[in-house]
Amino acid sequence: MVPPGFYPLVLTGPGGVGEGSIELRRRVEIVGEGETGAFIDATTLGAPAFTIVPRRDDDARFTLANLTVFGAHDATLIGGAIDVRGGALRMLDMTVTGGLADHGGGIAVAAGARLRLVDSLVIGNEAATSGGGIWNEGVLVAARSTVANNRASNGGGIWSGQGSATSLESSTIAENTAAGEGGGLWLGAPAEIAATTVGDNEAATGGGVFISPGSTGDVEAERSIVAANRAEGGGQCNGVLQSLGGNVDQGHRCGFDSASDLRDTDARLRRLGPNGGPTPTMPSRPGARRPTSPATAPGAIAPGATSEGRHAIVGATPARMRWRAVSAGS
After folding, report:
1. If we measure between CA atoms, which residue out of 199, 285, 288 comes closest to residue 235?
2. Are 104 and 138 in contact (CB under 8 A)?
3. Which of 141, 176, 229, 247 has a beta carbon 3.0–4.6 Å from 157's, enabling a disulfide?
4. DSSP per-residue letters across 225-274
5. Bond prior to 294 in cis (omega within 30° of 0)
């Protein structure tokens, strides 16, 4: 457990606590105590705050929870705040912000590595090349999480390469920017998008979702919204997604062709903000058209919504509270 507090990381000193990047080599859980957890600052470090490098066991499992991680500012890095080089990392109730790198302004996931992001927020990071929020060459699973206000040349929010796999559920990809392709998502490999909102992102091509022409597999979508994205070429999508039903496309280029899909439909999304879930979201305003099935089937999670679980009891989750602090300071 890490007591509440602010922990700046520096490269000088004899190697004690707070000195240098934190390398995780064996199975470990690092959990911040208190309502808002601990703050780990790598702003002046010149290296990611955390580097996951298992010694022998590629299946080694690591957990980071209830922390805010401020990334380094170095455009030559891979992974501005967290570099997952191997093993499996679970991130719970985390905020990753302020990172600058070449690839993965916030988080980088190498080939063979796995990241599970739960109830977490990746916000305000930048990559010179790809993956403003997250750069993924391994396996990325995000649930009830938000990737927002990140920037890159390609893949403003998330960039997933040809050898990767990506799964997004009950998540929000919003207000990200790419100078080139994929404001919200750049996908070059199989991906699953469920009950997720991709909204208010911007790029030159594929404002919401860009699927690489050399993609190694299908991108499947169900009960999801792609809306309010902007681009000169393909405002919502550049590339065809495989619909499993219940989707909303503000345009007509995403390939949503199921009988339960809505095309050329304004989802009337709210601005990104706290709406009762573990992280900020973009729910539809009252009166917006919704798919009749399966998105509104009993027990289904509506597009843009998040399941609340224990957070309904505590009222304000660490990630949401930290988002307010980050937003107020921007």
Report:
1. 199
2. no
3. 176
4. EEES-EEEE-SSEESPPEE-S--EESSS-S---STT-EES----BPPSB-
5. yes
CA distance to 91, 119, 152, 279, per residue, from 310 (Å)? 17, 11, 34, 13
CA distance 280 to 209: 20
The two tokens of residue 292 are 């009749």
What are 209's two structure tokens? 């979702």
With a threshold of 0.85, does the pTM exceed it? yes
How many CB atoms within 10 Å of residue 40? 26
Q: Where are the beta strands (DSSP E) in 82-150?
A: 82-84, 88-92, 95-97, 100-103, 107-109, 114-118, 121-123, 126-130, 134-136, 139-143, 146-148
φ/ψ region of 216 (left if φ > 0, alpha if ψ in -120 to 50, else beta) reads alpha
Name 221's bridge partners.
193, 243
Q: Quick count: other Cβ atoms within 10 Å of Cβ 14?
A: 5
Token pair recorded at residue 315: 């009222």
Q: Please, what is the end-to-end C-alpha distance for the chain in angstroms?
A: 29
Query: What are the φ and ψ backbone dihedral angles of 188, each rounded to 5 degrees?
Result: -120, 15
Which residues, 6+ apart, have CB-to-CB distance to 71 below 8 Å?
A: 42, 43, 48, 49, 80, 81, 82, 96, 97, 98, 99, 100, 101, 105, 106, 125
CA dihedral 261, 262, 263, 268 (to 10 degrees): -140
Does residue 301 contact residue 223 with C-beta atoms inside 8 Å? yes
